[in-house]
Design brief:
The chain has 14 helices and 10 strands. The protein folds into 2 domains: 246 residues, 3-Layer(aba) Sandwich (Rossmann fold); 84 residues, no CATH class. The protein is globular and about 50 Å long. Strand 7 and strand 8 form a beta hairpin. By secondary structure, the protein is an alpha/beta fold. Helix content is 39%, strand content 15%. The strands form 2 sheets. An 8-stranded mixed sheet has the order 1-2-4-3-5-6-9-10, sandwiched between helices. Strands 7-8 form a two-stranded antiparallel ribbon. The relative contact order is 0.14. About 7% of the residues have low confidence.
Amino acid sequence: MTESNSALPPVRIEYRTVHGYRRAFRIAGSGPAILLLHGIGDNSSTWDPVIARLARTHTVIAPDLLGHGLSDKPRADYSVAAFANGMRDLLVVLGIPKVTVVGHSLGGGVAMQFCYQFPRFAERLVLVAAGGVTREVNPALRLATLPGAPALLQTLRVPGVLPALRALSGTLSTMESAPGLPARLSPKQLMTDHEDLLRVLSDLAQPGSQAAFVRTLRAVVDWRGQSITMVDRAHLTQWLPMLIVWGSKDTVIPVHHAQIAGAAIPHAQVEIYSGAGHFPFHDDPDRFVDDVLTFIASTDPVDFDPVSWRELMCAGRRLDDIVGDDQLIEEVLEAMEDERSVS
């Protein structure tokens, strides 16, 4: 980007109480609204590399989802649908009627759900390494849903545990090979996202965060993998401008999910960031800002039409709308027919 940092608008942290729970959010800029939704265990600070630059021309709101960051962490509903409800309610309180929604990881699933539940609010959709395509997910997240996982997470509070994990991950991230591992699965490649994942683990050491994390995780993942899907409702995005962004070395949700999502949603623009991990907006923030702003400038916001919406709902998914080779089409069909819940 050519503009100096001095031209960046200030980013404020504000709070609103909605339904008795305090919700924190970062906000900056003015103009058409962009809503940034973070992933599981994360918080709105994850958007720090891009939020101010997006706010040069837009009002940008980046909430801490309930149970995350500086927002309250009650014993509450942490389903994808509940998060979408919370975003709608926050926008109503802030007086913002329309947004371009950008969702990362879990936040991508929430963003997709938001556009399905509240189409009147959604102008465009950007999915960034989004959950909810197929069951595939990092095995560590599957293990974290098992009964003994909460006790294991408690060890993060033990002095010295987090520094030891940082030291171990730093060592592994420099190793080009290891006995018993194929070259394509070297420790260095497997540790692409280690810095961001350690940052998330550090947040889980805070009081109240672990219980909310486990409840959230168990709402979307079980021992078999991701337990909810968005693919079955992909046809409802027919008139919704969509951008899909993924890192080629994502160690949390495989980059192949970008191709599957693009096959199920043919009108979506798919951008793969070579060498980037699960947080492509950290690995290449300049490109991310440019891609999002170009996407917004080059597309017209969808104007909600209840008649057209009803037609899409009644027609249901059409198999001939799926694009790609035979294998890719088969993967989309398998994702649609998988016995996973929908929100």
